[in-house]
Amino acid sequence: MRAGETDKAITVDNPTLRQLAQSIGQKQQHIGNLDIDVFAATDGEYYVLEMNPRFGGGFPFSYEAGVNLPGAIIEWLHGHDAADVNLSATPAVAHAKCDHLVRIHPDRLLHPQAQYHD
Questions:
Q1: What is the pairing mode between strands 94-96 and 46-52?
Q2: Which residue did the predictor score with more confidence, 9 or 105?
Q3: I need a surface site. Which of 25, 39, 66, 97 has the fewest CB within 10 A?
Q4: Residue 39 in 3-state DSSP?
Q5: Mean pLDDT value across the chain
Q6: How far apart are CA 101 and CA 81, in angstroms?
Q7: pTM for the whole thing?
Q8: Which residues pair with 48 in a beta bridge?
């Protein structure tokens, strides 16, 4: 993470985390998306840090690993079963976000409507 945003990630198939997520979903009776931040402690335990009913910063990584939650939500909204929509990530898929520093002439910030010819 960087500045509270997921910067890079690798998908894993962890049965303990999968069971934890299923348990939370069942106990909370939450429908839809629930972003859960989990801390893996050095003692081998997992601790839930927070839960947010939204697409979190890590969602693009899951999507790139094959999870099509938006497709499932659309199916559910139409009253269909989302059985044909992939809701499992392919393990060992790694991605990183890449920011580029771009120089902007100060006049472009002060006068954004002006016409510039570079």
A1: unpaired
A2: 9
A3: 39
A4: strand
A5: 88
A6: 44
A7: 0.75
A8: 38
